[in-house]
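DM from R.C. (forwarded with permission)

"hey, sorry to bug you on a friday — could you get me a structure for this? deadline for the figure draft is monday and I only need the backbone to look sensible"
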Amino acid sequence: MQHSHQDPLYRASRNAACDRPSGSSRGLSAELRRLAALRGHSSIISSSTFHKTGRNPLTRAVDSVLEFIRKYLPPIHWLATYALAVLLYSYARVVQATVEIVTVGCYQWPDLPKGSVLAFWHGCAPSLLVAFHARRPSFPIKVMISRDARGDYVALFCRWLGFEIIRGDAQHGAWKALLDIANDVQNGAGALISPDGGGPPRVARVGAVAVASAARVPLIAIGTECRPALFERHKWDRARNPLPYGRIAIACGKPLVFPLIEDADSLERARQQLQDALDHVTNEASTAVVRR
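My reply, with the result:
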């Protein structure tokens, strides 16, 4: 079923979010700092168990090599960055020109509502990026990409796909990047955020929830699946890459609106709600991709 940006479901969620007091950039910053502090007080979110698994040893070893090359051999790093970005972009062009895209859920792709946060599992990124390239929403999309060496070629690739890039990650300026994103979303842009970026896989961190709550905008969970696929079993996120002449299924969940988050328990409930929504839409996409 297709929804316009003014459909009753989205309008109700947007109005509920906007009923809270309006916030300036300074107010957004203060609210995000408050939510960051609440994260530290959550026995679940701040526990070692919550963060015990992430990128596997092979991925971490590759990251260390890339960081060494960027630091000590910058010409080689930037040459390789450009070459990898060209390779990824060329492949995405081939796939988007031949792939069939099917959608299920609350929105027909790419008729997504502006001024919202779009969340997805990191392993769904290859299919989602191709879908964005094939059918682009009518409003700017901000995407947060890590500041590490691997992020350099990903950022260049995503910029060529038409995204507006904001750099940041858990180790380098994540909350500053989230503030920039929150400001842009309040002004009508969309924000694409992977809550499990950096791992552990399919465990939502609180960044997307914090942006949606602080900016008083809806959060929409998006799941994707592709068939046939190149399955990267060695990667921490076990990404599935779409192949030419295949299918990509996209499932869009109902807009989530979070009331004012007052304590650590409320933050954990909101985080769990997003995680459950992401699992649900990802399963929906997996079912839809095999339908004929």
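R.C.: lifesaver. DSSP finds nine helices and seven strands in the chain.
me: no worries. The radius of gyration is 18 Å.
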